[in-house]
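Help needed: design a sequence for this.
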């Protein structure tokens, strides 16, 4: 009760704003205003199996299917959403966009056959520093709509990788390979796992996660990311 009072009291002075365009949110709007929600630059890749996200894993690792929610265009308002989710502590962006994404996938029965959602893990040091895993927030939002469990703590990140931003594709791959491991393979045995990440760029991290899963147990792996930002 106190919390609710406190929130509406604060709301009198600091109205909630759309995280993309900055306009005031009205009614039941959360995170995005109706216009920004409507204008999300969706990939619609969940309608095509041979989409560019899925194709980027071909010849690298056996991913069953893959898609992303929206394009991560330079200078776009939607780019800010990812930044706020990752670096400004705005976890609700992950939960809300995860729900919207989950709804799109549900409408097309894209997740039929998927048993569980597994967010790409952070190294414990980074998790401690940030206080949360942004991919887990997205997965939690999706899980509510898709009625699937989110499994954390079984796929883990072992070593602290250097910053990836200045590296080429091969270097990135060498940097991330073998850093992911499965603690208890029994949990994933015979399951179809949907790996969740915030952004698909080269796919090197997702590839390394999929390799760790496929080499540790008999499972199937698919991939879903919120944003798609091809290099
Ligand atoms: Zn807006």
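Sure. Designed sequence:
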């Amino acid at each position: 009760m106190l919390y609710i009072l406190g929130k509406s009291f604060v709301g009198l002075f600091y109205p909630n704003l759309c995280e993309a365009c900055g306009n005031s949110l009205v009614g039941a709007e959360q995170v995005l205003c109706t216009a920004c929600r409507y204008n999300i630059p969706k990939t619609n890749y969940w309608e095509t199996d041979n989409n560019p996200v899925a194709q980027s894993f071909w010849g690298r690792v056996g991913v069953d299917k893959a898609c992303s929610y929206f394009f991560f265009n330079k200078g776009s308002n939607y780019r800010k959403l990812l930044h706020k989710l990752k670096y400004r502590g705005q976890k609700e962006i992950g939960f809300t966009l995860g729900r919207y994404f989950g709804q799109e996938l549900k409408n097309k029965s894209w997740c039929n056959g998927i048993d569980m959602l597994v967010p790409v893990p952070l190294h414990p040091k980074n998790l401690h520093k940030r206080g949360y895993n942004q991919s887990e927030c997205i997965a939690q939002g999706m899980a509510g709509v898709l009625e699937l469990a989110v499994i954390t703590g079984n796929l883990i990140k072992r070593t602290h990788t250097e910053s990836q931003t200045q590296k080429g594709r091969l270097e990135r791959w060498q940097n991330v390979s073998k850093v992911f491991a499965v603690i208890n393979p029994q949990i994933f045995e015979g399951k179809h796992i949907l790996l969740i990440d915030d952004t698909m760029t080269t796919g090197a991290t997702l590839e390394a996660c999929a390799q760790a899963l496929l080499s540790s147990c008999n499972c199937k792996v698919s991939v879903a990311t919120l944003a798609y930002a091809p290099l």
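Residues 18, 20-21, 23, 32-33, 35-36 surround zinc ion (CB under 6 Å).
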